[in-house]
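Next up, sample data:
>
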Amino acid sequence: IVKEDSTEILLDPKAIRQRYLKSWFAVDFVSSIPVDYIFLMVDLEARLDSEVYRTARALRIVRFTKILSLLRLLRLSRLIRYIHQWEEIFHMTYDLASAMVRIVNLIGMMLLLCHWDGCLQFLVPMLQDFPLDCWVSKNNMVNDTWGIQYSYALFKAMSHMLCIGYGAQAPEGMTDVWLTMLSMIIGATCYAMFIGHATALIQSLDSSRRQYQEKYKQVEQYMSFHKLPADVRQRIHEYYEHRFQGKMFDEENILGELSEPLKEAIVSFNCRSLVAHMPLFANADPNFVTAVLTKLRFEVFQPNDLIIREGTVGRKMYFIQHGRVGILTRGNKETKLSDGSYFGEICLLTRGRRTASVRADTYCRLYSLSVDSFNEVLEEHPMMRRAFETVAADRLDRIGRKNSILMRKPSQAGSMAGGSGLGRGGRGGGGAGLGMGGLGSGDSMLVQQIVKHDSMPAMQEAIAAAAAGRGGATGGSGTVSPMPHPLIWAPLIHAPLQTAAATTNVAIALMHQQQQQQQLQHQLQQQHVLGGAIFLPSISPSPSVSFPLSPPRSLCEFPHWDDGGRRDGGAVP
């Protein structure tokens, strides 16, 4: 037994017995009395003795006690309650099955009313001992089997309720006339209720699609009112088809009414493919991932839509769930990004303008994060801000652009954690200080996962080139400088296009590999002239070892050494 006011189930036999005695016991006891068999025995005994039979005729009124058997119908409420429970079960799993249960329930109630009306059509003449003007006597069915009597009674009742006739014959007696009018009133009421319930049921089967159709009708009227061109109307139609897919929900209102755990569970499920394909989310703190996902807003862009325009003020960053975009710079260099990439966070970090344009190549399903939500999340997770800044600085460096804000922040964080750094000319602490000294081991591993794809080949080539450059810088004297020249910052310069797209963090284009190599060689040739310190990250296989990932602010800010290894703090000439 399930309590009505809660979902608690009673399993104690004593509690079940007491609850049953207080509720349905009296009704079930009265309805289980075999009244029909009792009166059948009375009729048989009356026929054996005519004197007793005459006495029984005087007690004919006792037959009205058969109505007590109708109390058994009160148990239909329990059946209806069971049907509603099954309807709720099917509704949570299968919408179509739930609709079928409701339809069967509605039809069953209509048939039950017809059954009751048919029984009433036969009960009234029977209580009057079948007068000659009743429909039973006119059809000579007084002594027929109960099957024939029930069939004609049900036919007569359904004819009245559906307003299609009077049955086999029109009513003649006053009793039949009143019964016919009562049946018609009940039938008209049931018909109206049936139509209303059926209409509501059909509308509730797919309310979201109906809401979408109503919304799109308003859009069509809007386009007609403003006389929009045919191509624009077609684009609007395709946008609505891809954005809403024939269904419309007030998702913000739905999620706003749920508790925080439920909201997080729903958002995590909806963005599961985004989390699975994005290295940032796959390796980040789960609390950070949850905080970001709950603030995302879903957006759809059509092919050739300009998502970001270079030079504009950025107020959002984007995560690609599905689709492909192209990133363009003024040099007409283009990079393709696909599922699992994200872009547009540089202007959110620097509060500056967009550094490149982003155009949709296909239909793109993106999630956007506003600048306010972005800063709110990063305030709660400051280490992730440093990771974003480090990778963003790397991305700017790879396309040959500098940003003093991004260059300064990682350097300051590194100098705080790295001790003396380059200012002391140290070999160990300074190198780490310029990198990710301000990041924890977990966040360092996150950035390492983002940039590790091709850092090692680039580092090896840069080391070899730098070694050759230092050999020429000594002037052939044979003496090796005690303070080795740092290497150039150039991670991922050999990154394949697809690999770079999978780890892209900003809306900027990759430079071609040949151009990157030429730039690297040119900087190495000018190293002795500049005397500056430019670093290449050395990624350690151990997650606990920090490594430098941020480029210097400027080549002119570092001390340089002469050929004798003497440190000179002068500026670059």
Remarks:
- Residues 217-248 form one domain.
- The mean pLDDT is 68.
